[in-house]
Amino acid sequence: MSIHQFLDYLRVEKKYAELTIRAYGDDLHEFQHFFIGETDSEEIEKAVKKHLRNFLMELSSRGLSERTINRKISSLKSYYKYLLKIGALEVSPMVGISSLKQKKQVHLPFSNEEMRRLLDGVQWFADDFEGRRDAVLLELFYQTGIRRAELIALTLESVDFGQKQLKVLGKRNKERLLPLGDSMALNLLNYIQERSELFPQAGPALFVTNKGKPMYDKLVYHIVNTYLSHVSTKEKKSPHMLRHSFATHLLNEGADLNAVKDLLGHSSLVSTQIYTHGSIDELKKVFNQAHPRAEKK
After folding, report:
1. d(CA 138, CA 220)
2. Cystine design at 207: which of 146, 191, 215, 236 (Cβ 3.0–4.6 Å)?
């Protein structure tokens, strides 16, 4: 049973995103490399609990975080669960192997002021195609809350200028429509016109490199991280933190939690509620300032 077949199952049957499938593949191939060193065999379906425990100990000795190790544990559990499903195994070697306890990390969203300085700061963006593309890309992240993989998957046909909305293909190939503000729609239109003039032979991808090729995840991350470094000293500067900021700022302004859930493309409110941390802080501030029984500082 090859890892390739399992990844095809995730792609075809489970409808997982390509970035997710790639992460599963990386984790399984990493274990396969370790397993070869232990046994001279590539067939990780023949691994036993001892091999898996040794692998996890080796990961820990390299100083990897609990979160990273837990992701690899999850990938291995899914792989062996699949082998059970198709009858290639009778017992999973992952039985009894639990995820590590993680220290709870709270990453603060960017403030309204940080986002204003970023998006209104013309000095950050070069007066060329790349600079204008980057400005539109960052604005779209913050105005829609889309995921990095969703942004990369956008095509020219994803934008409906008549209805001022964006069609997004989310996890499990679920489509959702997101509203576009007037300025966002205009900036997108100007970007697309420049993109078409510079790269008439480019494919359907909405966002392209300075050579007219489709954007890729590492470049998108680099763009976001670089520009956010101009306006924020927060440790985490990623596309996901723009999504986090989008959701938190909506909730701070009184948006309904269910509406934010739909905008984010979550299947349940449980996923959306992790973004309420910032809004709870805002509510506490209002309470402390206004309630007669609150502790005034």
Report:
1. 10
2. 215
Dihedral of the CA atoms 170, 176, 179, 185 (nearest 10)?
60
Instruction: Name the amino acid, one letter, at 213.
Output: K
Catalytic residues: 147, 171, 240, 243, 266, 275
Q: Dump pLDDT digits (tens) for 200-240.
A: 999 999 999 999 999 999 999 999 999 999 999 988 899 99
Question: Are 53 and 97 contacting, i.e. CB atoms less than 8 angstroms apart?
Answer: yes
- What is the spatial distance between Cα 216 and Cα 207, in angstroms, rounded to a whole number? 9
d(CA 194, CA 187): 11
Instruction: State phi, psi for 169 to the nearest 5 degrees.
Output: -100, 110
Amino acid present at 200: P
Helices 112-120 & 239-252, crossing angle to 10 degrees?
120
Q: Which residues contact 129 (CB under 8 A, 6 or more apart)?
A: 194, 195, 198, 210
**Separation CA 141–CA 267 (nearest Å):** 20
Joined together, the tokens standing for residue 296 give: 């005034």
pTM check: above 0.85: no
